[in-house]
Amino acid sequence: MTKKELRQKYKYLRQELTIEDTEEMSLAIANRLLTLDIWNNIYFHIFLAIETQKEVHTEFILNILAGKDKEVIVSRSDFSSCNMVHYLLTDNTKLMLSEYGIPEPVEGIEVPSDKIDVVFVPLLGFDGNGHRVGYGKGFYDRFLSECKPGVIKIGLSFFEAEADAIPHNDTDVSLGYCVTPQRVYKFSV
């Protein structure tokens, strides 16, 4: 399948999920994350779910991060340059929905990409080699290529890996892990 076909497939599969399904599966994903050896790190970047796209609900992960007293980073997207600016999430951070339905910080303390230790990556689909399909704008590939070499990249998916390899090129950044409600995939990077 092409990336375009994979995007259509996973958008359709997500839309078929009920609110209860997404809540239950998101909680299962958060619980599976607790089994990973990542919790000694300090700076965790997380996406805030786009509700209309039925993305993995990250509030369960946010609760874990708060309970472990981690520094949480969220981003604001610039669609003219397809880049993101990263901000420390604090009790004072104001969030607004962008025109694309993305909850984003209005302002705050900027955090450089190379300071981040762990990135939770949104995706539509992935394969057994850690290649993923996103929405197609390249925001996360650009961002992940700016991170330090040892950054831990963890995809979050409601669905299991594609049986066939996903087409990819040199600018696509592979995942180190992908976590689904059923299992944790670990990839050699």
From TrEMBL:
Cofactor(s) needed by this chain: Mg(2+)
Pfam families: 5-FTHF_cyc-lig
Residues where ATP binds: K3, K4, E5, L6, R7, R132, V133, G134, Y135, G136, K137, G138, F139, Y140
Gene3D superfamilies listed in its UniProt record: NagB/RpiA/CoA transferase-like (3.40.50.10420)
InterPro entries reported for this sequence: FTHF_cligase, FTHF_cligase-like_sf, NagB/RpiA_transferase-like
Catalytic reaction(s) noted: (6S)-5-formyl-5,6,7,8-tetrahydrofolate + ATP = (6R)-5,10-methenyltetrahydrofolate + ADP + phosphate
SUPFAM superfamilies linked to this entry: NagB/RpiA/CoA transferase-like (SSF100950)
Sequence positions that bind substrate: I50, E55
Family recorded in the similarity comment: Belongs to the 5-formyltetrahydrofolate cyclo-ligase family.
Name of the protein in question: 5-formyltetrahydrofolate cyclo-ligase
